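Dear colleagues,

For the upcoming journal club I promised to circulate an example of a predicted protein-ligand complex. I picked one with magnesium ion because it came up in last month's discussion. The inputs are reproduced below in full, followed by the predicted structure.
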Amino acid sequence: MGMRDKKVTAIILAAGKGSRMQSDVPKQYLEIDGKPILYYSLRAFEQSSVDDIILVTRQEDIEYCQNDIVDGYGLSKVSCVVAGGDERYWSVWNGLQACEKTDYVLIHDAARPCITVERIEESVSSVIKWGACTLGVPVKDTIKQVDDNNYGVATPIRKYLWQIQTPQSFSYDQLVDAYKKMIQDKVTDITDDTMIIERYLDLKTKVIQGDYSNLKVTTPEDLDLVQNFFKKNKKSC
Ligand code: CTP
Ligand code: MG
């Protein structure tokens, strides 16, 4: 645990199918500079002060991830590789079950390879300070809410709008508590963990400013942006 008396665990989510990417292999395994996208997030967390890492993948990819990625690149903080579920929140839930006793969890999308060690450290210190936090960036465009026929129906004030990224960081016990309530409620419209905290706990998530470069690889054009990021930052090794 180093200088800190709190244990921090990272859960890296890589159990998606990547349907919007329309590639044969799930996007987390597409290569950038000769290494799978998933590797870059694992490397950043490995180099950070987090104590251990839980990797969540599809059942059929566990062996490949353990052998080729975790062992292959010597990622010593990855304590286990577990199977995810059909929805992102089930993958998070499985990751939470796999955690050994811990104080805080950082939930991160493997599809965000440009996460930096600096932003991970800010997430760690912020979650210890505020109890729940997420990285995000102020939106640059005006955001319009539309109806089913694509008519604009509302324009929320831009200065209050942020795009939310990962890692999203919580007290382990509080997140598990919120998840148990959500599961009882049988909801299906959940897209991230801060939503669950908002709905089921009397707790606010602090939004801390991250980088626009911490984008989520979602569609094919995102790959070029990520490639440029690593070229510019000479981070590939
Ligand atoms: N994820 C997961 N388990 C799921 C769904 C998603 O672990 N059942 C992970 C993805 O691997 C990704 C992150 O959550 O790292 C963010 O999800 P998203 O970008 O939506 O990825 P996919 O669900 O794989 O892509 P798509 O929605 O286009 O199918
Ligand atoms: Mg998805």
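Two points we might discuss: Residues 16 surround magnesium ion (ligand 2) (CB under 6 Å). The two ends are 27 Å apart (CA to CA).

See you all on Thursday,
B. R.
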